[in-house]
Amino acid sequence: MRTDRPGYKCRANKDGSTVHYWSPKRAVKGAPAALSTIRLGDGLTEEQIAAECQRLTAQLRDELLKLGSPPTYDCTIASLVACYRHDKTSSLHSVKHSTRIRDYEPSLRILVADVGARRIDALRSSDFKKWFAGWKKKGHRRASGAIKLLRVVISYGAGERLIGCAQARDILSDMRFEQPAPRTVAMTYEQCAAIVAKSIEMGCPSIGFVEALKFETALRRIDVIGEWAPAPGGGSFRWSGLMAKDISKDMILSLKTSKTGALVSRDLSTYPLVTEALQAYRIPDIGPVVIDEDSGKPYWENRYTEKFKRVRDAAGVSSTVWSMDSRAGAVSETIEATGSLDAARDLATHTTTTMTRRYARGDGLEASRKVALARVESRPKTAQ
Question: How far apart are CA 84 and CA 89, in angstroms?
């Protein structure tokens, strides 16, 4: 067993390549359970992997030594991020755990790694422009996420009257950065049906059930598979989500959505894809509705994503189609079928049609045809 790569773990891809990770819980005994595993860069040599594992482990040990004492602000971005992380009143501690792990933490790591040594009280607009351009080369969404979190942490610093933050916030507030193009992919009925069929064939019908349910009802994935998150105040992770009691004997699903708290009811017996998926997937009598066949427990989000990709690829569905696109498919199909943006908004439980439009991925052709026919029908009939 190698001792020069503390916290190292890996996973083999189907194409023979290997994905490398660093696990804080493996690296340091007693590391907080809330810490997430970090994926290491692709193409690293054995020596580089060992060096990165050692660096991350040393950094974690140093952070644990300082745990409990507030970090010192020295005008650098890294120290500001440390204060933002430590302060329980900061927005980092009020967002959902899934949002923190998916959106906040990756961008905060980028800020510390790339520009953490820079002094905030010396920043100019040209610095922000150069950083954005550099991050954009590695991905437009990466750049947008980093700038968004930079605005957040600097605003936090300004609110706490930390030196340099108010001026930096004023500079940033006058700047606009190019936003990434909106996603244009929506899962189609045929693609979802193929995924349902292939999931049954591969012995993981839970994937087909989840995708069918999302496509037919426009529910968010987190509202279907649930979420693992640390207990309030820290401690071991707990699961919360869709339970068997939320589905009645006559197949009426009732729940409050996680994002808006909207109460929704759906008659699952009216959805053909759900009916097809339930030929192979059995809803438990009690407990969580969606269970990972491999673990016998509710899915962790990353494990669901990995298994979905395997099923999707085996079903011959394009890799450009993501699990999240089933919701866009539901909205797009609703608009094309009804010509009503309001109907799609209600299905997706959006508060405004502005958000619904972002999920509408069709070109509006069928909807415009329905409008045209309706207008013609409403006109006075000429004498024959």
Answer: 9
Tell me which residue has tokens 């099923």.
311
Q: Give 130-163 pLDDT, tens digit per residue.
A: 999 999 999 998 999 999 999 999 999 999 999 9
d(CA 56, CA 72): 21
Alpha carbons 170 and 326: distance in angstroms, whole number: 40
Q: Is the dihedral of CA 36, 187, 19, 198 positive or negative?
A: positive
Amino acid code (one letter) for 88: K
**C-alpha to C-alpha distances, 262 to 137, 255, 297, 330, nearest whole angstrom:** 39, 8, 27, 18
Condensed to tens digits (0 to 9), the pLDDT of residues 186-235 reads 898 899 999 999 999 999 999 999 999 998 888 889 999 999 887 776 66
**Tokens of residue 250, six digits:** 């006559």
Mapped onto helix, strand or coil, the DSSP state of residue 30 is coil
pTM, rounded to two decimals: 0.67
Alpha-carbon distance of 259 to 21, in angstroms, equals: 30
